[in-house]
Design a protein that fits this description.
The complex is a heterodimer. By secondary structure, chain A is α/β, with parallel strands linked by helices. The longest helix of chain A is centred in the last third of the chain and has 18 residues. The radius of gyration of chain A is 19 Å and the shape is globular. Chain A is 41% helix and 18% strand. In chain A, helix 8 links the parallel strand 5 and strand 6. Chain A has 2 domains: 156 residues, Rossmann fold, CATH 3.40.50.970; 134 residues, Rossmann fold, CATH 3.40.50.920. The N and C termini of chain A lie far apart (40 Å). By secondary structure, chain B is an alpha/beta fold. In chain B, the strands form 2 sheets. Chain B has a 5-stranded parallel sheet with strand order 1-2-3-7-6, sandwiched between helices. In chain B, strands 4-5 form a two-stranded antiparallel ribbon. In chain B, helix 1 crosses helix 3, helix 1 packs antiparallel against helix 11 and helix 3 runs parallel beside helix 4. The chains are: A alpha/beta, B alpha/beta. The interface between A and B is medium-sized, with 29 and 34 residues.
């Protein structure tokens, strides 16, 4: 499978890369909870039925089965919707996978509100917070098909427990090729006025926002894609903020516990600058098309640009010189 | 806790893979030793679940000292049988069995639940040799056992088996029934390698299971989920050994419902409510150890007079259940 050239869902990359891993490694097994067509694990299941386990609508069971498989030398990839992976099966993931430090990969599809029509019951907007809080769990949110493909390969090459969040809608290409490595932070666009820190489906929107800011206001925005939210590359974030002095984060997630808090945790301790957030407030999503579901919460390129303009108004008031001085410049 | 009388330290029976099987009477005496270990451990730790350990003592003894194929010198031996203590709060009884077999020094038992010790309050696979998976949150062990069984099947045609010990509380958790549904579904893919043993002692933290949440006829439930199921007296060593060994031969996942008494072997505690999660006081521990010591002496005497008779009739040659 080559790199995607047009908008493709990140969950497609999960299915394609999982199949590739299965072809290369006998120890890869796949589990799904009756959503394998949606999560794309069905591709693996069709080619390797003996290594595919559909457990039915029983996510808790799936996570604990994965624990047993991993404790016996397999590398399980568990897929279901993010709402069930991180919500329903939290305790099973916590004790059986994270606490045991087992090489289990949770492929959580349909993250965020952009899954659309199914509405609030299915729109997981706190999974990053839950999984960030869980000891030893790594949290990965790729930006497009090509990075998602790399993320899945990366997950096999490393041993720590991992939660990977994928999305339902076709997502514009951000990386022209499948990247060589999966980095916590990639600088996708350079600029000196403000740093836009985005993850997942908000990355291409942040790039659009940066273009609009330049075109309409002459603002030079730097855009960071955070694909590995935990452990986060704090130095990469501080290097950018040492230059711009202000940030706007963007995530399809609650602003509590997610990317905004991950960035704020870095800045608050190491380089205090204002960090403004685009994300979900104390609220649930609603039904609608995927794109329409993003609008009410400002999860759009316009929403990011508007927040950036507000941030720049406040920047001279709340910003101050870097504590670490030239070390970061 | 020097004032606590020491537990007898008989020579451990041979490892089950080496051929010589412990007799029923030897196993009964071993169960007494493990019970005494548990009393001492909990008295020293001043914390933990003694009564839940005692109800499972006979089953755990039968497993480690006779039925499980395991080798303390090779805890990672790929073809070993796996034991999963879904009722992780009964960790002391598993720790006692592991220590008696030399997975770690006997004196380590006295570190139970203490800071820096390898014996955590609930089993931890990364800290304690012989623990296959960490447990302690009820309801997860049968699913974990299924995962192990599926992996063993993928690994080839060896016949390593997975033995999972469940409590009443485990069977109140919905996840146990997700696993109970899945194991027969995956019978040909490894599911049939599981023996689930239910330590049905009818007592839980807040009262009897009948009062708190009646789990009813466990045999009928497992049977209706497609398991090969038998129900036995969980303190009848011959019946336990027979049921465990028979379960190796069935082609479905096997369930053994053991009717047990919480606190078994300590008469002040046996079958009585109010001891869950409560360690014995020094006085209670002394009393319990005295009682168990008498039992041990009687069992030793019986062994000495009847060794030949019992050695000649190993339980596995008797009819099944």
């Amino acid at each position: 499978m080559g790199a995607a050239v047009e908008a493709t869902a990140t969950r497609q990359a999960y299915g394609d890369a999982l199949l590739a891993l299965g072809q290369e490694h006998d120890d890869v097994v796949s589990l799904d909870a009756d959503l394998s067509v949606s999560t794309q694990a069905a591709k693996f299941g069709k080619e390797f039925p003996e290594r595919f386990f559909n457990v039915g609508a029983a996510e808790a069971n799936m996570m604990s089965i994965a624990c047993g498989l991993a404790a016996t030398g397999k590398v399980p990839y568990c897929s279901t919707f993010a709402i069930f992976a991180a919500g329903r099966a939290y305790d099973q993931v916590r004790l059986g996978i994270a606490h045991n430090e087992l090489k289990v990969r949770i492929g959580a599809s349909h993250g965020g509100v952009s899954l659309g029509e199914d509405g609030a019951s299915h729109q997981m907007i706190e999974d990053i917070a839950l999984m960030r809080a869980m000891p030893r769990m790594q949290v990965i949110v790729p930006a497009d098909y090509n990075q998602a493909y790399r993320a899945v390969l990366h997950s096999y090459e490393n041993d720590e427990p991992m939660y990977l969040r994928f999305g339902r809608p076709a997502t514009p290409v951000v990386y022209e090729e499948i990247p060589e490595t999966l980095n916590s932070v990639d600088v996708l666009r350079e600029g000196g006025d403000i740093t836009l820190v985005a993850t997942g489906h908000m990355v291409w929107r942040a790039l659009e926002a940066a273009e609009a800011l330049e075109r309409e206001d002459g603002i030079e925005a730097e855009v960071l894609n955070v694909a590995i939210i935990k452990p986060i590359d704090s130095q990469a974030i501080i290097e950018s903020l040492a230059k711009t002095g202000v940030a706007v984060t963007a995530e399809e997630h609650r602003v509590v516990g997610g990317l905004a808090d991950a960035v704020r945790a870095v800045t608050a301790e190491q380089h205090p600058v204002p960090v403004f957030a685009v994300g979900m407030g104390d609220e649930f999503g609603v039904s609608g098309t995927g794109e329409a579901c993003m609008e009410p919460f400002g999860l759009t390129s316009r929403g990011i640009a508007a927040r950036a303009r507000e941030a720049l108004v406040l920047k001279p008031i709340v910003s101050h010189p870097p504590l670490h001085g030239p070390e970061w410049t | 806790m020097q004032h606590l009388r020491p537990v007898p330290d008989p020579k451990p029976p041979p490892v089950p893979i080496e051929g010589d099987l412990a007799t029923i009477r030897e196993l009964e005496r071993w169960a007494t030793v493990l019970r005494m270990d548990c009393v001492r451990m909990l008295a020293v730790a001043k914390s933990g679940h003694l009564d839940s350990s005692l109800s499972a003592a006979d089953v755990v003894t039968a497993l480690y000292h006779r039925v499980l194929r395991h080798d303390p010198s090779r805890p990672d031996w790929p073809e070993r049988d796996r034991f999963v203590l879904s009722k992780g709060h009964a960790a002391p009884i598993q720790y006692a069995a592991l220590a008696r077999y030399g997975y770690f020094p006997l004196e380590d038992l006295m570190g139970l639940r203490k800071i820096g010790a390898q014996l955590q309050g609930h089993p931890d696979m990364n800290r304690t040799p012989g623990v296959e998976v960490s447990t302690g949150s009820l309801g997860q062990g049968l699913s974990m056992s299924l995962g192990i069984a599926l992996a063993l099947h993928l690994d080839g045609d060896g016949d390593a088996r997975v033995w999972c010990l469940l409590s009443d509380g485990d069977c109140q958790e919905g996840q146990t029934w997700e696993a109970a549904t899945a194991a027969p579904h995956f019978a040909d893919r490894g599911g049939a390698r599981i023996t689930a043993v239910v330590d049905y002692n009818h007592l839980q933290t807040d009262g009897t299971t009948e009062e708190v949440m009646d789990i009813g006829d466990m045999r009928a439930k497992f049977e209706s989920f497609g398991w090969d199921t038998v129900e036995i007296d969980g303190h009848d060593m011959a019946a336990i050994v027979d049921a465990l060994e028979r379960s190796r031969t069935v082609e479905r996942p096997a369930a053994i419902v053991c009717q047990t008494k919480k606190g078994r072997g300590v008469s002040s505690m046996e079958g009585r409510f109010g001891f869950h999660g409560k360690p014995p006081s020094p006085e209670q521990a002394e009393e319990a150890l005295t009682e168990l010591e008498h039992l041990f002496a009687a069992q030793t005497e019986a062994l000495e007079t009847a060794t030949g008779e019992f050695a000649a009739v190993p339980s596995r040659d008797r009819g099944s259940d």
